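Tokenised fold entry reproduced for absentees:

. . .
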Amino acid sequence: MTTQPYAPPQPVYPPRVAVIGTGFIVNNSHLPGLRAHAGRVELVAAVDVDERRLDAFRAAAGPRVAGFTSAEAMLDVVRPDLVLIGTPPELHREQTVAALKAGAWVLCEKPLCMSLAEYDDIAAAEEASGGYASVVFQHRYGSGAVHARDLIARGELGAPLVAHCQTTWYVPWRDRGVSEGGGPTMGHGIHQYDLLLYLLGEWEEVRAMAARLVHDCESEDVSTALVRFRSGALATVVNSLLSPHEVSRIRVDCADATLELTHLYGYGNDDWVYTPAPHVDPGRAAAWRTPAADVRSSHTAQLGVLLDAFDRGERPPGSGPEARATLEFAAALYKAAFTGRPVRAGELVPGDPYYEAMHGDHPQWGPRKVDRGA
């Protein structure tokens, strides 16, 4: 008997979509995205352990959406083509792997998982299933970011030299370091420095500090980092929950121009500003203006790009090496901060405690150790 080579299932049109988790982020970001792409997807199922929350979601989403209190039961009965995950981060790896094994593609809220070890479990499930798991980093998909990256990649702004990336927010801390993977480095600033990586590419070295300055929490409430990129560019990264004047900001100083993005939770084209160096011809600088089509950064924008990839049967942006690179940067920042030494790209491998967990089992960080006495 001849064994046939494995072939992934052919895409189904329109893809049948299920959501796992029906809380705030799914209602306010994923559901509008599904509605915006109503001609390209069919929402068929929703999962939540809270039946009242599930019922409220189904009432808003439509009567044809089946309800389940178990992700396993939903995957077994419905066999969706695409699963959107909006549950707490500690559940992401398990639910993503289960969805992949059931033959679905996945779009999961950040972080995709809580460690590089968990990511490699997801990568193995991808390889075995032929599906793909993407993480929600919606700031990559606004037209302003796509345009800025293209300008940098083509050398239109000159070589990137210095960059600043800040997420300075004032958020009541929920002390869920264990279930969320960390503090603002993992749970808040990750959107901005993911965008920085999208613009500047591979990083080479991280030096960092972290502290608990206000909140009594299991992880940090502020972190800062110095980053060297493969291109030679140097950057600062600040992630804070202690800042009354809230802002999300990226600035990149190139040889011929400075580009700046200032926003809070999302941006449009007008939030991007280009300042030419004195030697730059005004006609050249005029071409840097953001495109006429204004696509805001959003779940809707990212879902559209994912569906384009689904239509072609190709790996979508925001999955695979791209997803891992941002997670590796977070782990490197934590290791550099908690150990007080620089961390280079590629050094976090199996056997390194920061490969297994963001806190690296450091005695002063991560889960509190309970002294049970004699």
Residues 3 and 276 are 61 Å apart (CA to CA).
